[in-house]
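User: I want to check something. If I give you two sequences, will you return the structure for each one separately, not as a complex?

Assistant: Yes, each is folded on its own. Here is the first sequence with its structure:
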Amino acid sequence: MNMRQGWMIGVVTAGLLAGGTSAQEEASEVFSLGEVLVVGTEDPAGEGTAAQVTGEQADRRFRRSVGEAAALAPGVTLARVGGRNEAMAYVRGYDTRQVPLFIDGIPVYVPYDGNVDMGRLDTFGMSGLSIAKGFSPVVYGPNTLGGAINVVSRRPSQPEELETRAGVFSGEGLEGAVRGGLLRKNGYAQAGVSWRERDHFRVSDDFRGVETEDGGRRENSDSRDVQIHAKAGWTPGGGEDELAAGFMRQDSEKGVPAYAGTDPGTVPRYWRYTEWVKNSVYAVGHKRLGQTGYVKPRLYYDTYENTLKAYDDDTYTTQTKRSSWTSIYDDYSFGGSVEGGVVAAERHDLRAAAHYKQDVHREHNAGSPEATFKDETWALGAEDRVALTERLSLSAGLSVEGRRSLEADDPATGEAFADNDNTAVNPQAGLFYAVTGGVWRVTAARKTRFPTLKDRYSYRLGTALPNPGLDPEQALHFEAGYEGRLAEALSGRASVFYSRLDDTIQQVDDVAQDEDGAWLYQLRNVGESENAGVELGAVWTPAEEFAAGVDYLYLHRENIENPEIRLTDVPEHSLKMHVDWQVVSRVMLTPSVEYNSSRYTTTGGTKVDGFWLCHVDAQVELPHGFGLYAGIHNLFDENYELGEGYPEEGRSFYLGAEYRF
């Protein structure tokens, strides 16, 4: 850390000592049908079970993607899959296959591998997101092994409203967005579009050039993202009953910067995603039953199309080598759920849900036959919140989940893989004790993740053997914590957690040789691992115009059965600090600092160094609904990596204007 970084950190730290996390904004345009209430959050006794990030917080700090916004939450770490240029959020050490992403309660992922590039999804139109950790509602459905991330969209709150923005940012970047809405007594409608495009990003001036990257402009780092959404709702009589239907399309194109590290065993790949398109159509409803009951159905149909091209070299023009190809995905998913609940005998808050979905993955390389893979997954879950006393409550739940293979073509033999299926039973329970201004909690939960189509069937570009018989991963979570007021204008949170992951799916090397004598690996259930740690946070708001906060995560991860196989992509220590300062009535200044210690980026033990980042964001409110926003990220041009050989962006700038009516 140099003197400039130390000066900036000192300024923010001084603000923390005189101030606490951002002022707690309330989203005023929440699409309530998209919420999945965390057990216990109906009253203060459950606030510690989930972290929240509002759309206003994301906008204030120029976090334009869902991945960047999620990383603002305590316990969440941003990572990047460098070989695919995908952003991923880890929640207490669990990735997006184990902590799935939902938008308005509907799962969003690539059917083949269970992941989704969270860097593609825009936060425009997001009222907020919630992140459940370990102990999460069973009504989410299957595969929530480490928790769940749910993005809740906006809905109109005024009879007529309009929101627009336009801006520029480093790397010849441009952004624009517009959203309009209508609200009437018996319904509402809204539609919007957002667009972000950049030619490149620049690496730090301290980056030392290598053969594949000479510094300055990062080669093949361009991207384009267009998101279109529309939604209409019917609210008969303006009451609690509601039926909404919506559509979202994410249309992207991106380069994949080549490996720029020093490992002689890593061969650079020259890849581009020339097509990355996801369409979603959904319907969600809420019907009140009697005085305290309700039923909420959800239906959805998603398509995902992806074209990935591997080129011969860094000109990205020819595909003549054996290592060059064009891979085409044509996937779709469909499914739904029915959730219902009732308050019974004044002490029981009961909820239950049934889920079903099918995932279909169709892939081929240009000029080759198509292979098809199809799974179905189902889940039944119920939970009860019991008021044991005026202060003490018990939340208990149970889910039964299953996955079955419906079709799986082996592209190597032309024959079908053998059918396979998995089932799991997951109980959970939590005690919540309310005190003046806060709540203590103790929770325990068992959770499961079924292996994905890619886990079971992929040859990994000829480097691996499939394993259709993989068993599910199973985790057991324990947590104790407190959240609430600590003193006048000061609130805080603290939690201690431990989770053990059994039947961990890990790579086992040298299991067989191919016809050329090269050794192949295979994914197997060989691992037992554990995650243990502490989360600490504080919020202090000494005045309406000044607030600051700090979040710290200590995370110890250990591969118990195979310690030589490292657990990757998450630092042991991470720290987030920021200040919201209303300098004058119309100017908001938000300086922030974040720290990540070193992390493993390969299972073989390759590490990247820890780093400090400093940012300054500003918003200016102008008359008549206009506003300006500007900022500098990575203020001191830190040269850092989230994955070895894939340098991140150096110092960057942005400037824009917005209008709201």
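And separately, the second sequence with its own structure:
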Amino acid sequence: MRLLKNIRSLLGNYQLKSGIFHYHRGEFQQAISYLTKALDPIGKTEETDRNLAVHYLTQTHISAAEHFEEEGTLVKAMAEYLEAIRLQPGYPDLYFRLGILQSKAGEHLEAIERFKKAIEIHPDYLEARTSLGFSLLKAGKRKEALEHFEEVNRLSIAAISGPFEKGKGCLAKKRDLEAAEFMKEAFQRQPHNFSYHYRLGLQFLKSEKLEEAIQHLQQALLFNSSYADVYNYLGVALAETGSPAAGILEFRRALERNPEYIVARLNLAFLLAGEGEDNDAMAELKSVLAREPGNRAAAQKMNEIQDRQASLPRVGSKVGEGSDANR
């Protein structure tokens, strides 16, 4: 669940809603069918719905790939990742995942190209550089492998020393909570463990096992606190378990890492409105609509807040004040 339930209920596109429904049920073929229809024809689907359809269609292909990988049918898994890449070619993790499968299948030259593409998009992608080094070794390209392992070494040191120095600075200023966060980033950042907990968190969230989802997403953040998506998913899980204040905090953390993250901003706006923080909610909704003027859910929530505010008595007014009958 990338969006809060009360936002998903406002989606106007039947194909999109049906696709999301089947995605959460793990019914990949049905989800792909509906979500593909939500994208066609171009020009007749609102931008917001289109963006969501692309997101959920990509996630469906990823889930299908993971399913086939668990079954051991690598060819089908690779085909699903290729479909996901076609939808979102700028997503480096897709190339990395595909490269891992191609390496398992003995396609080392193909894997090398996938890892290189992931690094081209995200130069500091430590896991991709590490895997690239091993694939180059298997292909007999020792000099190039050494160059990438030297870069892995540099990135690994930087990943520890940067937050460590910041943590030391916070300790010197007696800012213990901030120091703890930097020290976690320095010494508990283990990418492979992050991936494990992140994937499990999403699986539990999709099946609405929210407590388990929260545990794994929180654990993922201990290993890597830089991904806005993780905070957004955690915010959704917390909000759906009846912890709106905690959800608001996580959505704000997501936006600190990516101010252009419209989904997190929309989730935040709806939670703020639910907590009666109308002014803050309106500010977030205006920001959403400035980026996506056709966002139906944001427009509807804004109208709802404006109607509610208009119905409230003005401060200092008396009952009946201002009506023609009392003039």
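Because they were folded independently, the notes below concern the second chain alone. The chain has two domains: 9-187, 191-310. Residues 319-327 have pLDDT under 50 and may be disordered.
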